[in-house]
Amino acid sequence: MEKLVLVDENDREVGQDEKIKAHREGRLHRAFSIFIMNSKGEMMLQRRALSKYHSPGLWTNTCCSHPRPGESVMEAAHRRLKEEMGFDCELEEAFSFIYRAEFDNGLTEHEFDHVLVGWCEKEPEPNPEEVEEWKWASIQEIERDVKENPEKYTYWFREALRRLVPWLRERNLLKG
Fold first, then answer.
1. pLDDT exceeds cutoff 60 at 103
2. The domain spanning residue 58 has which CATH number?
3. Residue 175 has pLDDT above 80, yes or no
4. E strand or H helix at 4
5. Cα–Cα dist 123/114, whole Å
6. Is residue 19 included in any domain, yes or no?
7. What one-character-per-residue DSSP string does 80-119 give?
8. Which band of pLDDT confidence, cut at 50, 70 and 90, is reported for residue 48?
9. Which of 69, 84, 108, 138 has the most crowded Cβ, counting Cβ within 10 A?
10. Which helix (H) or strand (E) holds 75?
């Protein structure tokens, strides 16, 4: 049984709960979202496997998950990047934010989400239980498609992206 780390609005641990129970009850828990960029300024996106318990088949950032109790966000991020996408690279934390999204299946994501950014040229070897497909896409292409077709993207991806693009621009990390 997978456990999540429950936190308060300041990311202080307040307990643990079983993963599905925490999502059924909408309890605030620690999570991370990884955005991998390449030297062309493209972002690696994945489309979630159709078997995922929520948001199946939607496009999202390179990888996302939850740290296990006793595991740091960074340790968990490197573990999940290898498990989900078949590679690892250096990551840095860009920012964090809290969001809440309710799904049609009765589950709620209520996450304190740590957004991590990495730079990599590797081709992933995605785990088919996690990832339906993947692609590199320019920020401009992604922003345009998210605006025109928001239903094709996960809620947290849309929320993180609108914060990430200014973060990348402020640091002159975007091409074009």
1. yes
2. 3.90.79.10
3. no
4. strand 3-7
5. 24
6. yes
7. HHHHHHS----EEEEEEEEEEEE-TTS-EEEEEEEEEEEE
8. very high
9. 84
10. helix 73-85
* 131 domain residue, yes or no: yes
Domain extent for 31: 3-170
- Note whether residue 176 is domain-resident: no
Residues 70-91, mean pLDDT to the nearest whole number = 97
Domain assignment of residue 65, yes or no: yes
Query: In terms of DSSP bridges, do strands 108-119 and 91-102 run parallel, antiparallel, or are they unpaired?
Result: antiparallel
User: For the chain, what percent of residues have pLDDT higher than 90?
Assistant: 90
Domain count of the chain? Answer: 1
> Rounded to whole angstroms, how far apart are CA atoms 5 and 148?
35
- Name the residues annotated as catalytic: 64, 111
pLDDT for res 78: 98
**136 burial via Cβ count (<10 Å: 0-12, 13-18, 19+):** middle
Confidence of residue 176 (pLDDT cuts 50, 70, 90): low
Task: Fill in the amino acid letter for 33.
Answer: S
